[in-house]
Amino acid sequence: MSALAGKTAVVTGGGRGIGLATARALTALGARVTVFARTARELEAAVQEGAAALAVAGDVSREEDVARLAARHEGALGPCDVLVNCAGILERGLVEELSPAAWRAQLEVNLTGAFLCARAVVPGMKRRRAGRIVNVASISGTIGGDRASAYHASKWGLVGLTKCLAEELREHGVQCLAVSPGSVDTDMLKQTPFPPQLRPEEVAKVIAWCAGEAPAGMTGANVEVFG
Ligand SMILES: NC(=O)c1ccc[n+]([C@@H]2O[C@H](COP(=O)([O-])OP(=O)(O)OC[C@H]3O[C@@H](n4cnc5c(N)ncnc54)[C@H](OP(=O)(O)O)[C@@H]3O)[C@@H](O)[C@H]2O)c1
Prior knowledge:
By secondary structure, this protein is of the alpha/beta class. The protein is built from 6 helices and 7 strands; from the N terminus they run βαβαβαβαβαβαβ.
């Protein structure tokens, strides 16, 4: 039996791209999944096709939306066993071209959003002495690059948050890992000059493995998936 059978999972950014592929993979392994993002139409389509059990629309960077996500998930599907922080945005531009608003938005969604979602589910995971958090970072969180400073900084931060959560949660039986893909064939990649190296389904398989079968001793690892 799959390690995810009968578990519940929240996938942020689950409306399309890597998040939708992850919802499909977790559901196929027997988990009951809530997908969360801003575009309700995409979330409802995910439920319609059977990729998820519940759709909750909202913004990961808004505390009240994240609180509503946690309450709706627990009310409908039960305590959250797995959190996949996959919501992300990218706005490219040289440092001197990037507006402070664009800088802040990328940090807020890509990094603070993951913090807020983790904060919402960690107390229950600690009480139950079980749970997994998988943060979808990026190769950009291990290297520098031009025209994407806010994105790179947010992903370096997300890898750091992953390692800190792993330290805080190890003794409570809860694991936290990062998955860092290279270029994946999604809408986000179309904003870049990079050719795709990976399909969302390939990355989703790794995320699902980290959420289920990966040994507990891997907590804190940043799993790179470059194709
Ligand atoms: N594609 C790549 O090459 C690549 C490589 C490495 C890492 N990643 C990471 O993988 C993750 C998924 O990216 P993707 O390529 O699948 O991009 P995508 O197709 O653009 O999907 C991004 C998802 O995040 C959601 N989202 C964005 N802002 C949000 C917010 N404020 N609140 C809630 N949800 C939000 C989007 O939905 P709404 O717009 O409806 O909110 C969408 O569901 C991101 O964290 C990205 O940084 C991607």
